[in-house]
Amino acid sequence: MRLTHRPRLLASVALTALVLAGCAAQPEAADDAPATAVETWAELDATELIDQLEAMPLGERPQDVLASIRQDEVLVSSPNGSQEVSVPIEEGHYLSIAPYVDRTHDCYFHSLTTCTGEMGGEEITVQIVDDRTGEVYVDETTRAHDNGFVGFWLPRDIGATVTVTAAGRSAQASVATGDEDLTCLTSLQLT
């Protein structure tokens, strides 16, 4: 009796081993798929993501991803809207500024991949001062990125005055950095 069941037992053990080996050799479907552009950019923390995309020359900007700065996150999405990932901003409020002379665009949430201003590469002096305390958060001369913007990290929940000077012209605006406030300042017309 032992002899008749032994071949079945061995066959059963061999089949089980093959099935288990086959399962172990099969990678999960998610591991096979290459990371999308959205997933790749979303692997960065918010500061790295903003710094890299803001400084990237216009001709090198990715066409397969959109990135929009909100008060507490950067939304990274595909152009067709099929994928969206939130990258949290842990602290601070990012304000991107594009002063202009002749042309601008309406903007509330700065798009790191599509917003462009007219002063790309130009030297700009920016001063940002707290309206309540008089603390100076920014007082520097910098060069606008290729997209025409300069960006600054500010404390959250403040009111401040932004003064921009370039080519002998200046402009001023009031900003706030609360939960509902803008991250894209494009209304500074230099006169």
In short:
This protein has 191 residues and is α+β, with helices and mostly antiparallel strands. Helix content is 23%, strand content 30%. The strands form 3 sheets. Strands 6-5-8-9 form a 4-stranded antiparallel β-sheet, with no helix packed on it. It has a 3-stranded antiparallel β-sheet with strand order 1-2-3.
Notes on the structure:
This protein has helices at 2-25, 29-32, 37-42, 46-55, and strands at residues 66-69, 73-77, 84-88, 93-97, 123-130, 136-143, 150-154, 159-166, 169-176, 184-185. It is an alpha+beta fold and 191 residues long. It folds into two domains: 2-32, no CATH class; 37-185, Immunoglobulin-like (Sandwich). β5 (123-130) and β6 (136-143) form a beta hairpin. 26% of the residues are buried.
> Tally of extended strands?
10
CATH topology of the largest domain: Immunoglobulin-like
Residue stretches low in confidence (pLDDT < 50, at least 5 long) are: 1-30
Structural class: alpha+beta
Cα Rg? 27 Å
SS strand fraction = 25-35%
Cα separation of the termini: 103 Å
Task: Specify the biggest β-sheet.
Answer: 4 strands, antiparallel
How many helices? The count is 4
Q: Looking across the biggest beta sheet, what order are the strands in?
A: 6-5-8-9
Shape: globular
Mean pLDDT: 87
Number of domains: 2
Helix residue percentage: 10-25%
Named at the architecture level, the CATH assignment of the largest domain is Sandwich
The CATH class designation of the largest domain is Mainly Beta
Note the run of SSEs as H and E. Answer: HHHHEEEEEEEEEE
